[in-house]
Amino acid sequence: MARSKVKLAYITNDAARRVTYKKRKRGMMKKISELSTLCGVDACAIVYNSRQDAHPLDEPEVWPSRMGVERVIEKFRQMPEIDQNRKRMDHADYLTLRIAKEKEKLKKKRHDNNEKEFQLRMHDFMLRNRLPENLSFFDLNNLAYHTDMKLREIDMRLQMLLEKENKEMMMDFASSKSSRKNMNHFSFMEENNHNNYNSGFEMILGNAGIN
């Protein structure tokens, strides 16, 4: 059974939030350890508890160790700035990326909704055989645009069908021409054989003294 998709939103329930924090933190640390071991890469993690749940004296949890974290950070700082910024992402960058993706999804949904609305309107127009009087300039312009696009699709479809039909006709014509050629060749061979047979038969009769 597939898991239900988790809603990415702040958990307001204190107990549920603490349980989720411990579970997710443990899972993240495990994944980082596996990544470092399997791929042989330097990695580290620093996790701060939320302000509501943290104790004033709590230290951030680190992986693999405090010295290990300092070593990875120092190695990172020694890299050229262009390499440091490559594929670098902080919380603001992550949110910006998520917003851009959601905007793209919203744009696609709006486009799909506009297409469906247009199809419903066209169906209604065809049943009524007239346009509603309450259409705005934007609606009419949008309707004209979609109608033009549909007409272009129809023209392209007709062109494809016409090319397909012409291709099939050319193939049938070539096949028919080839068949006629074979028939003519067969008739010629049959007639030639018949003439040869008659000539041979007459020659035999002549040699036998039969007129």
From TrEMBL:
GO biological process: positive regulation of transcription by RNA polymerase II
Location in the cell: Nucleus
Keywords: DNA-binding, Nucleus, Transcription, Transcription regulation
Pfam families according to UniProt: SRF-TF
Recorded GO CC terms: nucleus
Boundaries of every MADS-box domain copy: 1-61
InterPro entries: SRF-like_MADS-box, TF_MADSbox, TF_MADSbox_sf
Superkingdom classification of source: Eukaryota
GO molecular function, one term: RNA polymerase II cis-regulatory region sequence-specific DNA binding
Classification via PANTHER family: AGAMOUS-LIKE MADS-BOX PROTEIN AGL80, MADS BOX PROTEIN
UniProt-recorded name of the protein: MADS-box domain-containing protein
Origin organism lineage: Eukaryota, Viridiplantae, Streptophyta, Embryophyta, Tracheophyta
